[in-house]
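User: My collaborator sent over this chain with a note saying "see what the structure looks like." That's all I know about it. Can you take a look?
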Amino acid sequence: MYNEKLNAIEEKLQGRLDAKRYHHTLGVMYTSACLAMKHGESVEKALTAGLLHDCAKCMPGEEKLLTARKYQSELNITGFEIDHPHLLHGKLGVKDAKEEYGITDPDILNAIANHTKGRPGMSLLEKIVFTADFIEPDRDGHHIPGMDLIRKTAFEDLDLAVYMIIKRTLDYLQESGGPVDTDSVATYEYYKKITEEKN
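Assistant: Without extra context I'll predict from the sequence alone. Here is the result:
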């Protein structure tokens, strides 16, 4: 499954990410593959999306803003994201994935675009990468309340895991006084309803 194309992407990507981000990226890639095996998604697509999810993360801040403004409508970048540039790397990653790494699969591109905030009605691959980004082994579970339960849940009920992650994120933002994006709230409300309907 780990073919020459993926190997070439990894080698190129390693030169564009700092060591810490690259290590995290490998964790997300392999966690995505594990979740794909469990939940019936293409392992190759999960490896590719996991590998490229942060491909634009280390772009310098000013370049991020300039690129975001230039491609704002094409990449569906919101005003909130421009005001909070740390949220831009997912959608900017779509542009990089296409132009630098030759990715054309819309599901992979959506998984890259939405791995930070999620969205209502995510595909299976999107949910896998969104979840893997949060639970990959390098994340320090001792400082994230409920991490062990979220990791366990991810392999049992992916919708519930997504709900737990987005709830934890919103709780953290409210506790710390951080800005809350309406897109994240919409994701929360959607997966809250999904999990309530299952129960």
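A starting point for your reply to your collaborator: The mean pLDDT is 93.
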